[in-house]
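Consider the subject:
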Amino acid sequence: MSIFRVPDLGEGLTEATVVTWHVAVGDEVALNQVLAEVETAKATVELPSPRAGRITALRAEEGETLDVGAPLVEFAEIAADGDAPAGPADGIGAADGIGAADGESAADVARSADAPAPEGTRGPRRQQVLVGYGPKLPTTGRPRRRPRVFETVAFVGRSAEAAARERPAAMPPVRRHARDLGVDLETVHGSGPGGRILREDVDACAKGGTATCPAPGTTRSPSACSDTVRPDTALADSAAKAASPAEATTAQPPSAAPASHRIPVMGLRRATAAAMTASTTAPQAAVFHTVDVTPTLKRLRRAEQEGRRTSFLAAVCRAVLPAVDRTPLANARFDAGTGEIEQFDDVALGIAVATDRGLVVVRVPTGTDEDAPAHTGHLAGGPALTARIARAAARAREGSATPAELTGSTLTLTNVGVFGVEGGVPLLNPGQRVILAIGAVRTQPWEHRGRIRLREVVTLTVSFDHRVLDGAEASAFLRDVADVLADPGLLLTR
């Protein structure tokens, strides 16, 4: 028997939430077959099996959050020559490789990953540590969670294998939506192909719709969502039936407490809450500037007509990098531990992306060589930068961005203009000391060459850590960005 534990999914990530199981108890899985989809504070990740075997137990339920290193899956290995499955091998220590089966250290796995097995050797084959995750470094003193005990109360008279296989079918976004609304998918009858539960089914159940009652003959829980089992309507109906005629004609005062419901905060939302709380430890300030960007937009429209599309966000990125050259402290951070300012040699530009899981910052390569920082090569052209931003944003929205892509940015841009607002004051993430907010481009009367004309203008906001930059330096940085947007020809001289 082997135990697969929650692997180390990236620097600084200490836990993961099980979103969807792709296997059930009793299933036989192949090497690298996806076992589960888990959500971290950075992304949604698929966990492949480190070896072939038969699933004997799932140590967590969907929606449950586990620490890195916590037991996740138990399975018996299938011997290659048809022998009986390998015996118990539990006993992994705190310094063993996360993602390896218990009884194998990360060093053992690494040494045997590329070595062929001798002929006649029996027993389980050693497999590589989970690709991309790496072995877990020794961690001592970290509190361990108490073992969880699971009871199967909804499947009386059936085996654990049958219970697992009858888990209602629904896509991960639908499951997350159900968790947000507090709807138990076991009580929802799916109207999609093959009985799959759709988002509309969850919404109807949350509203008490009859369309979500279990189908006749199903073994779902009798407490399925319907108009007669919603707590608020059920209490109201029973109270009305119990009231006497005299009471029915008497107006009752409204309840002092408004109706409400609670939404669990987990994964990215919880990480964002923690980061925003931590951000209050930095003395933040902000400066604003409204600039006429008509010349830049004219150039962008002309380039698009010529088949070289460049987004306005990409144009701002190209304006930011030379501004950092003129104000290097815009690309630095304050080290509270040493009382020093750490100035970065290269700009790791991050773009804030709104996803259905919350706001994430994804790094975008800005150099001519996509694998090299902008300061070690030439600045990427507008069309190339536009395509990179689009790809990075798409990966972030799909949840397929890697932890490396979601960490390590030194300066962030957030385009609040896409929401139709003229500007905003962004908060700094821990570790970041400058963030530039871009408002919506709007047409308004503007003084141009001594006359009032209709011009396209935008408001830029820079939030900064006052321990790293003072007001004059932050204003100079913002003004340099604005000057390039007002006169794109300055890129030729900066």
